[in-house]
Write a structure and sequence with these properties.
heterodimer; A: Rossmann fold; four-stranded antiparallel β-sheet; 9 helices; globular; B: mainly alpha; two-stranded antiparallel sheet
């Protein structure tokens, strides 16, 4: 459960594309150890917001602080090295490499900030694959996996980085109901080791996983609260259903 | 790479090198000369392939690095009378520096823009060779003096007018480059390179500096192409602006595509087939460049992965 140490803080965060204010002055605080969901109607700026956090998109204004350090101007790869991992909305793996090779690259990415004894690549790879239940497919070519398994591989790569913050962008998109139930167990398991920030459309997933929910609408933070509070919030209902 | 894949590649490469070494005892004189040329050009293609095949960057200006090595070695020998090993080392270093500077600029662009930028830089290099004719003697080029046809190395004297000596030097250079590239690709850094090739965005989001990874490979590629240029100039005793021309950039591309981009032996195979074909054709017609063009089109349309790329796809997935 969440402690009250802020892990990530944004203040007045903005991203404008010409006249379009995709993210427009968001003050947001994420606490260590929590599972936070970001929801909002299509085009609310959710993906842009997490792209700003991960560094894939440059900010137009405002600041981002991660673990006490200003990371606003850091390139994406340096933020990853500091512990922000991002898994893609559209499955984004190395299709021609084997499943194990995919994860091994991620383990190697973590070696940058690893202190002490050298990382055992093979053992760490096996560990991450085991966590998502893909051990038996370690030698399969990643591009030939079923879609659900590719999503799991994506998450295994995120895990192999051993992030402080794992950002999951619509992780259950395209999964079957059974796969989603397995996924819920997996995320709860991950959250014992990392803070999780989740963009999700599936309300069942959001309501059963999130400690707190932030609602984005038209690039601004509309509401924030526990799942129960958000469910009863009139402004949220209006944003979703239209006035 | 798994252990068995590593072993297979090791055996294949060692086998090919062994075959090349033995070849000199079997081939008639004229073919020894041709094989020497092929091996030097294979080093050039190997350098080009390091960039195209293993990190996914298509340069249209690699003649620039070949020429940097050629002139780096040739001019210092011709004008300053440097000893050959020293001139060779200088030329390799010079081409690495050129690659570092050009790469730092060109790698800010991607895809087609990258091709155009490298092409433009190479044209500048070519025109510079012509412009500084006082030093380079322009299109006519320079023949290295007789004093530069022998090398004193640790008390040994290597006679560069001997075909056998030249063959073995070219062979050593090819073997060295092949071994270095193989070791690099089998290492953790090589894994990052191919990860960048396969999925750049993902690799950055796993915490790797994609730009510096590309620049590293660009410098390796430039230095290898430069080493080929330097060897070519010193072994055959002639440097000329043709080697800096666009046609040479295209030939490196053609060798690599024909043999199979992203395979270690592919460039060598491509050179072998292409040079042999040009040699036969130029006896028949002066329009052999037309044939090169047709081959390029055929390869791209029907064999986009090249010979060894197709072999890997069908039969040998372990092929590096």
């Amino acid at each position: 459960m969440a402690s009250l140490t802020p892990l990530l803080v944004t203040s007045g965060l903005k991203r404008h594309f010409g006249g379009l204010k995709a993210v427009d002055g968001v003050d947001f605080t994420l606490y260590e150890g929590e599972i936070r969901a970001i929801i909002g109607p299509n085009g609310a700026g959710k993906t842009t917001f997490v792209s700003l956090l991960s560094g894939r998109t440059d900010v137009s204004g405002g600041t981002i602080t991660f673990a006490g350090e200003d990371v606003t101007r850091l390139p994406a790869y340096k933020r990853v090295q500091r512990g922000i991992a991002y898994t893609f909305q559209i499955t984004n793996i190395y299709p021609t490499k084997t499943v194990a090779e995919n994860v091994r690259v991620a383990v190697q990415g973590r070696a940058h900030r690893h202190r002490g004894a050298p990382l055992d690549f093979e053992a760490e790879t096996a560990l991450a694959l085991d966590a998502v239940g893909l051990s038996s497919r370690a030698d399969a070519i990643a591009g030939e996996l079923a879609y659900g398994h590719q999503r799991l591989l994506e998450i295994a790569m995120g895990l192999a980085l051993e992030p402080k913050l794992l950002i999951l962008d619509e992780p259950t998109q395209g999964l079957s109901d059974a796969e989603i139930e397995d996924f819920l167990v997996l995320v709860r398991h991950i959250s014992s080791r990392a803070t999780v920030l989740l963009i999700e459309h599936n309300m069942h997933v959001v309501m059963s996983l999130a400690d707190r929910i932030s609602v984005l609408s038209r690039g601004q933070l509309l509401a924030e609260g526990t799942p129960a509070e958000i469910r009863d919030n009139a402004a949220v209902q209006e944003a979703y259903l239209g006035a | 790479m798994t252990k068995s894949a590593y072993r297979n590649n090791l055996v294949l490469n060692a086998g090919v090198l062994l075959m090349l070494f033995v070849l000199q005892f079997v081939l008639p004189d004229y073919h020894v000369l041709m094989a020497t040329r092929m091996m030097v050009l294979a080093v050039f293609a190997l350098g080009f392939n390091a960039l195209l095949g293993y990190i996914g960057l298509l340069s249209l200006g690699h003649a620039m690095f070949f020429a940097a090595g050629l002139y780096g070695a040739g001019l210092t020998v011709y004008h300053f009378g440097w000893s050959l090993p020293f001139a060779f080392g200088f030329a390799v270093l010079a081409s690495a520096v050129v690659a570092l500077v050009i790469g730092a600029v060109a790698l800010r662009t991607i895809r087609v823009s990258f091709m155009i930028v490298t092409l433009m830089f190479a044209q500048v290099a070519y025109l510079m060779v012509i412009y500084f004719a006082e030093w380079t003697n322009g299109q006519e080029g320079l023949s290295l003096p007789m004093s530069a046809r022998a090398v004193d190395l640790f008390g040994w004297t290597l006679d560069l007018s001997s075909a056998v000596t030249r063959y073995n030097l070219a062979f050593l250079l090819l073997a060295l480059c092949l071994v270095l590239l193989f070791a690099y690709l089998a290492s953790a850094r090589g894994r990052v390179a191919t990860a960048i090739r396969d999925n750049e965005g993902r690799t950055e989001m796993l915490g790797f500096n994609v730009f510096s990874g590309k620049l590293e490979m660009f410098v390796i590629s430039g230095a290898m192409s430069g080493a080929a240029g330097a060897a070519y100039g010193l072994l055959f005793g002639y440097i000329g602006s043709t080697f800096a021309s666009f046609q040479y950039s295209i030939e490196a591309l053609l060798f690599t595509l024909l043999g199979g981009a992203g395979t270690l032996i592919g460039p060598l195979l491509g050179v072998l087939l292409m040079v042999a074909m040009i040699d036969k054709l130029s006896e028949l017609t002066s329009a052999y460049l037309l044939v090169i063009g047709v081959v390029l089109i055929v390869v791209i349309l029907w064999f986009p992965k090249g010979i060894l790329g197709t072999v890997r796809e069908r039969w040998a997935p372990w092929l590096l």
